[in-house]
């Protein structure tokens, strides 16, 4: 027997409800500081999932994120959440939004727990849910043991994790994080990635980072920013296609390494013992005898697009 019409209608409503708000449209967004175009006519649409925002220093990532957070007014253009301009949503947007700035503000006297309680109140988290959410986040971010410590006394990595916790307190539909992994050690990075992967189901998460491998593992899409503009957008596989056949690996002797590093765009090196070092480098053609092309990764593309960059690696 076919399902009753009322069941079908309810099903359609449920699907609509789930999808509602699952789109953040950035439309011709610009921000000028005097004659500096920090963000220059950026347009793209964020949908549910993790998005990586990659770009060299000064590319405009923070300025773009601050406009998405409704903290900086655009010079022109707008951001729409589910079709409504965020600047007109006020409190409603703030309640469904979470933001981790590069430096988050906190009073020096706050303990971790006091601060999170204070932030929960600011974000209108229902009182009866506050304690449970704080406990869960403290545990997920391995902060339980320092809950009574003053934030000012914590290490940089711990402080960053408190920042991540406050951004996630209101279980936001849109979570924007500016360099969330700065200062985290390799183990904390893995935990962060797992946490975000799980959290991003049915939510929009935008992460800017210099550590390309952090987003390579979890981002379903990446937007690459250069001089205020989005120059490329797509899945990692789509993005790296442009450098297929341009990433090589080959062996050099330890004595010649410095010379090759001066001459080639070396992405990474691996000591093989016996006086040999394997180098991974970018080039239109092979530059070493017995070089072979290898499948490109996101960090290869990053170095290709931003040659002046020294890649920051996990654990550095
Ligand atoms: N308040 C401001 N006044 C003047 N110029 C600014 C201001 N904020 C940013 N800029 C300039 O706009 C450009 C983009 O800066 P932004 O901080 O957005 O880049 P970014 O990609 O986040 O860099 P980083 O990775 O170093 O944080 C830079 O040239 C910066 O100097």
UniProtKB/TrEMBL annotation:
Keywords: ATP-binding, Nucleotide-binding, Transport. Residues 24-252 form the ABC transporter domain. The keyword Endoplasmic reticulum does not apply. InterPro entries: AAA+_ATPase, ABC_transporter-like_ATP-bd, ABC_transporter-like_CS, P-loop_NTPase. CDD domains: ABC_drug_resistance_like. Belongs to the ABC transporter superfamily. It comes from the Bacteria. This is ABC transporter domain-containing protein. GO terms for molecular function: ATP binding; ATP hydrolysis activity.
């Amino acid at each position: 027997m076919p399902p009753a019409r009322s069941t079908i209608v309810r099903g359609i409503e449920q699907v609509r409800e789930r999808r509602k708000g699952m789109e953040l449209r950035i439309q011709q967004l610009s921000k000028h500081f005097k004659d500096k175009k920090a963000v220059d006519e950026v347009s793209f649409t964020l949908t549910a999932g993790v998005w990586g925002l990659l770009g060299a220093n000064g590319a405009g990532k923070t300025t773009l994120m601050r406009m998405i957070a409704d903290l900086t007014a655009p010079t022109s253009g707008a951001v729409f959440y589910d079709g409504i301009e965020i600047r007109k949503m006020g409190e409603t947007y703030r309640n469904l939004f979470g933001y981790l700035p590069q430096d988050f503000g906190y009073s020096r006297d706050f303990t971790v727990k006091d601060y999170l309680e204070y932030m929960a109140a600011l974000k209108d988290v229902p009182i009866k849910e506050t304690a449970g959410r704080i406990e869960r986040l403290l545990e997920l971010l391995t902060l339980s043991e320092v809950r009574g410590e003053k934030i000012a006394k914590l290490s940089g990595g711990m402080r960053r994790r408190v920042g991540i916790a406050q951004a996630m307190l209101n279980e936001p539909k849109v979570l924007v994080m500016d360099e969330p992994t700065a200062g985290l050690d390799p183990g904390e990075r893995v935990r962060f990635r797992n946490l975000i992967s799980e959290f991003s189901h049915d939510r929009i998460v935008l992460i800017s980072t210099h550590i390309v491998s952090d987003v390579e593992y979890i981002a379903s899409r990446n937007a690459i920013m250069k001089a205020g503009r989005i120059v490329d957008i797509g899945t990692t596989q789509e993005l790296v296609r442009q450098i297929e056949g341009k990433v090589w690996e080959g062996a050099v002797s330890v004595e010649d390494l410095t010379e090759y590093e001066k001459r080639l765009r070396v992405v990474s090196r691996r000591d093989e013992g016996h006086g040999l070092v394997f180098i991974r480098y970018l080039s239109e053609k092979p530059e070493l005898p017995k070089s072979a092309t290898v499948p490109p990764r996101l960090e290869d593309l990053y170095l290709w697009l931003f040659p002046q960059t020294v890649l920051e690696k996990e654990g550095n």
